[in-house]
Each structure stands twice: as structure tokens, then as C-alpha cells.
């Protein structure tokens, strides 16, 4: 009992000396968050079926009740140019790459899209979108000037026919 009591007092004295003799390894610096930037982008995606958008997989459906132009469970990969206007000869500012899982049940799709820019002040930057194919797509990040971006990408179909699709995009991005 006496040995345990003596050991306890020695430990208390040693621990109090450690707290008195120790110092922090660096001085505390105040936190200064980077300012948040909001960028509004407007451009057009030009897609050509079979050339810039290709169906890469489809579910094996045994029944032939597929009355939709979009088959159930189709996986489409695309690499489309981003342009400044709706004309086919308008200036190319980048490209959009991604995949879309299409469903004929409710005409919706789940999409992963990466808008890459190769001209102007956003050269080398991209915006990543991962969302359902509703009019408002969720911005889920990016790289370059859009690192850790959030926001919304609104799209409006301009031309949709058997071979061509032109979509207008208005993207509001919050980034650092």
C-alpha cells in the first residue's frame, strides 16, 4: 500500500513538471479564409449521335415492349465540343465528356459530366457535374480555378433531332 502511494505521488510530480516545461511547437496563426467567388458561365454543347455520343451498353431485355426512343438501361458515353453559339462554326472553348445512364420509365437519366475549358481565363480548368438529368444539375467539384466548386448547371435544349442535339448551358459556380 505504501509503495502504491509513493508511486502515485511520484507520477503526479512528474506530470506537473511536464506541463510546466512543455511548449507548443509553433505559434498560433489567425485563420483567414479565402474569399468565395461566384462565376456565371454560358455556352452551348453540340452533340452528334454516333460520332460524339455513342451507346456503349444496354440491358438485355427479353420482352419487346420498348416503345420509347430511349431504350431502358442504356449507357451512353459522349465527348462533345463546347461552343460560344448555336452555329456549327462558332468558336470552340472546350469540350464536355461524360456518361449517362438512360431510363425510358420516366424519361430520366443519371449523368456524370465534366466540362473542360481549353481557352480563355479558365484554360485548364473544368467543372464536374454528377446528377439526375433534370433541368438543374448539381455541380460536384472541379479542377483548376473551379477546385471544390459547388453550384447548379441549368440546361435548355435548343435543337433535338435524329442526328444532332444542341444544349444551352447556364452554370452558376461558387468556388475559391
Report on the architecture of this protein.
It comes from Gossypium hirsutum (Upland cotton). One of its GO terms (biological process) is phenylpropanoid biosynthetic process. Keywords: Apoplast, Secreted, Signal. It holds the Pfam family Dirigent. The chain is mainly β and about 180 residues long. It contains one helix and nine strands. The chain has a single domain (about 35-60, about 70-175), classed as Allene oxide cyclase-like (AOC barrel-like), CATH 2.40.480. It has one helix at about 1-20; strands spanning about 35-50, 55-60, 75-85, 90-105, 110-115, 125-130, 135-145, 150-160, 165-175. The chain has an eight-stranded antiparallel β-barrel with strand order 1-3-4-5-6-7-8-9. A hairpin with a 6-residue loop joins β7 (about 135-145) and β8. The longest helix is centred in the first third of the chain and has 20 residues, at about 1-20.
**Which sequence of SSEs, written as H and E, runs from N to C?**
HEEEEEEEEE
CATH architecture: Beta Barrel
Q: What is the mean pLDDT?
A: 83
Strand content: over 45%
- Measured as a percent range, the helix fraction is 10-25%
What is the highest CATH level, the class?
Mainly Beta
The helix tally amounts to 1
Number of E strands: 9
Provide the CATH topology.
Answer: AOC barrel-like
Order of strands, main sheet, comes to 1-3-4-5-6-7-8-9
Let me know the CATH homologous superfamily.
Answer: Allene oxide cyclase-like
Provide the gyration radius in Å. Answer: 28 Å
Computed structural class: mainly beta
**N- to C-terminal separation?**
63 Å
Poorly predicted runs: none
Amino acid at each position: 500500500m505504501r509503495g502504491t502511494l509513493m508511486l502515485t505521488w511520484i507520477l503526479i510530480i512528474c506530470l506537473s513538471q511536464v506541463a510546466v516545461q512543455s511548449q507548443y511547437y509553433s505559434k498560433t496563426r489567425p485563420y483567414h479564409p479565402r474569399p468565395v467567388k461566384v462565376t456565371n458561365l454560358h455556352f452551348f454543347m453540340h452533340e452528334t449521335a454516333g460520332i460524339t455520343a455513342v451507346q456503349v451498353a444496354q440491358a438485355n431485355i427479353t420482352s419487346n415492349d420498348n416503345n420509347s426512343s430511349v431504350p431502358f438501361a442504356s449507357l451512353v458515353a459522349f465527348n462533345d465540343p463546347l461552343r460560344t453559339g448555336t452555329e456549327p462554326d462558332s468558336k470552340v472553348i472546350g469540350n464536355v465528356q461524360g456518361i449517362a445512364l438512360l431510363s425510358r420509365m420516366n424519361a430520366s437519366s443519371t449523368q456524370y459530366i465534366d466540362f473542360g475549358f481549353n481557352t480563355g481565363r479558365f484554360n485548364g480548368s473544368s467543372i464536374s457535374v454528377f446528377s439526375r438529368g433534370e433541368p438543374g444539375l448539381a455541380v460536384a467539384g472541379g479542377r483548376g480555378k473551379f477546385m471544390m466548386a459547388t453550384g447548379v448547371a441549368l440546361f435548355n435544349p435548343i435543337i433535338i433531332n435524329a442526328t444532332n442535339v444542341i444544349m444551352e448551358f447556364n452554370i452558376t459556380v461558387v468556388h475559391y
